[in-house]
Predict the structure of Polyprenyl synthetase family protein.
Amino acid sequence: MKPGYIDSRTEEFDPAPALRHYLAGTAAGDGDRLDAVTRYAVQPPGKLVRPVLLVESAAAVGADPADLVPIAVALEYLHVATLVHDDIIDGDLLRRGRPTVHARYGRDEAIVAGDALLLDTFRTLTEAAELGFPPAAVLEAVRIVAVAGLDLCRGQAMEAGLAGDLYCGMARYRTMAGLKTGALFIAACAAGAVLGGGSGEEVRALRSFADHLGCAFQMRDDLLPYLADTSRAGKSSVTDIVNQRPTFPVLVGIELADTTQCWRIEQSLSGRLPADEAHRLLRQVLTETGALAEASARVAAEVAAARADLAPFGVRGERLIALADSMIGRTW
């Protein structure tokens, strides 16, 4: 076992500090300009949800998660790369409470840094073979993450296609959320289980857990602009309104609204009102219809489904359950 780590088979093991340690010292580059930009992108890290999911999924199938820490950071590289590019697409100037990469370094350097982090994802994954993991498991983990990356891109393209369509329906939203957000959750859990030596049944159960959790996470993220101010959410509360996106609470509101309330929702997302005024109007009507309460209940139902998927793991699934509860209960 590596010095400085606690055996995963004890309850005291916490992968987050070790993940932060690796992120602080292994971002791409050799101290050059690219290194500075990629380090800014990954530092300080967020909640490290995806790499922690990989580590804890390995533990759930009986592996020592300390061994997975150097590999798990790959999921953070991939996640951050997508955020860098998303912020450019959306024109967002704030991420995690500070300037986005393109706001700090410019659009061109941000694009290159995002590309570098994408490539570093797979370099890091392949290093698992050098750490003693079976080559077949490493290859499968790389395949899982690559497929997830493609699914994520499909989800983002689908999200763009739904812009302005307030009547697209919940089924299409669920598909989009499963691709855009759920894909990396699924990849993290499945790759962790495969590298940890899990059975096919265990991998399938963890994939289902991650699918439910990923959708709950996206739904909760869509709710944040109406439940927290910008300083607590760490991002703009009006981005989705400016981009005319039919987010989860909006679609719930359309389901519950009467004709007049639907018209008010349409007005708030028409692009004809100042963003802050549109946000106030939309928040008001979503509260009136009960959409915010109903949306929160549906998030809880997704989390309950995720928890149920972990039942076969018994006590080995408790840390994943605790992680899911802490993630969806977030208010930053």
Summary: The two ends are 35 Å apart (CA to CA). The beta strands are 94-95, 98-99.
